[in-house]
Design a protein that fits this description.
The complex is a heterodimer of chains A (274) and B (225).
Chain A: E1 3-4, H1 10-17, E2 20-21, H2 28-32, H3 36-40, E3 42-43, H4 51-65, H5 71-84, H6 103-126, H7 129-134, E4 137-142, H8 152-158, E5 168-170, H9 175-179, E6 195-200, H10 202-207, H11 222-228, E7 233-235, H12 239-247, E8 257-259, E9 264-267, H13 270-273
Parallel strand pairs in A: 2-3
Antiparallel strand pairs in A: 4-5, 4-6, 7-9, 8-9
Helix pairs in contact in A: 1-6, 4-5, 4-6, 5-6
Chain B: E1 4-9, H1 17-20, H2 26-50, H3 63-69, E2 71-77, E3 80-85, H4 90-95, E4 113-116, E5 132-139, E6 144-151, E7 154-164, E8 167-178, E9 182-187, H5 202-224
Antiparallel strand pairs in B: 1-3, 2-3, 4-9, 5-6, 6-9, 7-8
The chains are: A alpha+beta (274), B alpha+beta (225).
């Protein structure tokens, strides 16, 4: 066993590569109301529909995820692109989250997207049958100290997490999806939350009364779900959200999806268009 | 690709070799061993993050916590997995510059390296500041002036209420000069000591892998009994 070169985090990179841009005028609050399956397949940035900007963001996410670039350099590249376009934030928004060129916004965008793809990659690895057998549970833990800390114990209770386990639940427990602002069973569970998970072994989970020796958990086929790619569907009731999704175009000018007769938004298969 | 990798094998003189003999296929124990190694690395990096505030006291980049999220493992053969930390800068922190040409880090595409001189500069690129220029500034640590990117001198505007044409209005008035302070030091090259505590010891990592695999095989034995 020796230290040497790192190998790519394939599960995370493959998940990132499978995502498509969702150019949209929707706000982050509205985006959060979309189906997680739709968001998992999409790269998006609240109120951004310009492809050139989205491309810079995407390149930043991918390069940081691949270990080719540090966050500061990726952030500078995005800022320089915006400066070249002559972008100026409204005076009352400068430096804030609504300023496309602010460090706060770009850090949040890169941080959330990279964390999400790494979270998904680790989740996929954790769903391997032997690993799920050995580590069937996980613990919600604070991994970064944040200035404002939400009450995660209360949020755990509200999400239906098992009581008296010290924020430990089986990986298949609905608490993980319920905890997440994004509807995912893996971190990040919210913007800048500072929360993560750590594996809990079967022995410890047995001691907590969460599982017995012989019960086997069924792996979540999230990989297949991602690879299906374009079959996401979502019932959208809100008129504004509906209009924004209908107006969203890919770089060739084609609609990214359509509403079927039941009001379900179905992403269009890009390969079928080309 | 930047980062560090650690090879875990069931072959040769490793802690896993005797355990390998207890199973038909090594993939199961390598899956568990790989995950256990990943967990141990992640835990170590998260603890390192807690114990490593930035020296200038600026906003934290949480470098080690983010590196912890980037830990993963991958099979390279039926008998080996590689634990990887895909994070730019982790290898430099661990090894230092000793292995680089001349034992020093030099700029690749620029003339100088930029070293943060203020808390505000920590975790940022000089290009993100719109008001810097090359100059000299006093470095209290060296006790002399040195080359730096300094804040461009500017007149500070102070807003005060003044009576204009009989009506009180907010008007901008010159409030003195500011600037000249160093934001980044400029250096041709830098020498960095490595930090072995960036990673767990090889012994601790092997111990974590082997004990997890033993526990896993114990579970299988109990079920079979």
């Amino acid at each position: 066993m020796i230290w040497g070169h790192a190998l790519p985090f394939e599960e995370a990179l493959a998940s990132e590569a499978a995502r498509r841009w969702l150019p949209t005028t929707l706000s982050s609050g509205e985006l959060a109301r979309l189906q997680p399956a739709l968001l998992r397949r999409s790269r998006f940035s609240a109120k951004v529909s310009e492809f050139a900007h989205l491309d810079e963001l995407g390149a930043g996410f991918s390069d940081v995820l691949a270990g080719k670039l540090d966050v500061a350099t990726a952030r500078l590249r995005i800022k320089q692109h915006l400066w070249r376009t002559g972008y100026q934030a409204p005076p009352d928004k400068t430096g804030g989250l609504e300023d496309l060129a602010s460090s706060a916004r770009i850090n949040l965008q890169i941080g959330t997207n990279v964390e999400m793809m790494r979270g998904l990659g680790n989740y996929i690895q954790g769903q391997q049958a032997d690993i799920l057998d050995m580590y069937p549970a996980q613990r919600l833990v604070r991994v970064i100290e944040t200035k404002v800390q939400r009450d995660w114990e209360q949020r755990w209770k509200d999400a239906g997490g098992p009581a008296g386990t010290g924020l430990v639940a089986l990986k298949t427990d609905k608490v993980w999806v319920n905890l997440s602002r994004f509807g995912n069973p893996y971190p990040p569970f919210d913007f800048n939350s500072g929360m993560g998970v750590e594996d809990v072994s079967r022995r410890e989970a047995m001691a907590l009364g969460l599982i017995d020796l012989n019960t086997q958990l069924f792996p979540d086929n999230v990989t297949g779900d991602i690879n299906q790619g374009v079959q996401a569907s979502h019932v959208v009731q809100d008129k504004r959200m509906k209009a924004a999704l209908e107006a969203a175009r890919d770089r060739a000018g084609n609609a990214i999806g359509h509403f079927d007769e039941a009001g379900v938004f179905v992403l269009t298969n890009p390969e079928a268009q080309s | 690709m930047s980062g560090l990798g650690f090879r875990v094998s069931t072959k040769g003189d490793t802690g896993l070799a005797p355990l390998r003999k207890r199973v038909l296929d090594s993939r199961g124990i390598l899956n568990v061993g790989g995950r256990a190694g990943r967990n141990a690395l992640q835990k170590h990096l998260r603890a390192k993050n807690t114990s490593s505030p930035n020296k200038l006291g600026g906003q934290r980049t949480n470098f080690y916590a983010k590196a912890a999220d980037a830990v993963n493992f991958r099979f390279i053969s039926n008998d080996e997995v590689v634990l990887s930390i895909n994070a730019v800068g982790i290898a430099l922190r661990y090894y230092g510059t000793a292995g680089l040409p001349g034992g020093r880090l030099t700029p690749v595409s620029a003339k100088y390296l930029t070293i943060p001189a203020t808390a505000e500069a920590h975790g940022k690129r000089a290009g993100e500041f719109g008001d810097l220029e090359v100059g000299y500034a006093y470095d209290p640590q060296l006790g002399r002036e040195r080359l730096a990117l300094v804040r461009r001198e500017a007149t500070v505007l102070v807003y005060k209420r003044r009576k204009v044409d009989g009506v009180f209005k907010k008007v901008a008035l010159p409030g003195g000069k500011q600037g000249g302070e160093a934001v980044f030091w400029l250096v041709r090259s830098v020498k960095m000591e490595g930090d072995e505590t960036v990673l767990p010891t090889e012994f601790d990592l092997i111990e974590a892998v082997v004990s997890a695999v033993e526990e896993f095989l114990g579970l299988l034995d109990e079920r079979a009994a």
